[in-house]
Each structure stands twice: as structure tokens, then as C-alpha cells.
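Morning, I've got a small favour to ask if you have a moment. It would help a lot if you went through both lines with me. Thanks so much in advance, here it is.

***
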Amino acid sequence: MTPTLLPSKDEARLCASVVRDLARDLSLADDPVAIGKLTVLVARLFNSGLRTREELMSAAMKSAGMPSNPIIAPTDH
């Protein structure tokens, strides 16, 4: 059996912050099942070689069906 390398503390924190931000952006903060699915998604993306926050956020947003660069509506004054 080959040994499995666990992510470092910083890598785990990176993935957790991406999941937290995605859950907030998608209004899923109160849905544990959805957060679990996001966690699996981000972990798979991380294991596929994506290592920066920007790469993980962009790929996860695309997988979740969100645009990677959301357009902010101008405020009416």
C-alpha cells in the first residue's frame, strides 16, 4: 500500500477558506450537505494540481455554474 501524503496546515487552510468563501457567495452557509459537496469539489481540484487561491476559486466557480469574474451591477445615484 502506498503512503498517502496529507496536505500541510497551510494547504488545508487554503482549501477551507475557498470552501467558506464559495459557501458564502452561493448562500449555502446553512446547508451542511452543500458544504460537504463543495469540500469534496475543492479537494479534488487541489489534488488535480491547482494550488493557488485564484485557481481553486475560478475552477470551483465554473464547476458550480458561477461566472469566475462576477459582474458587479453599478449603483444608481
Residues 70-74 have pLDDT under 50 and may be disordered.
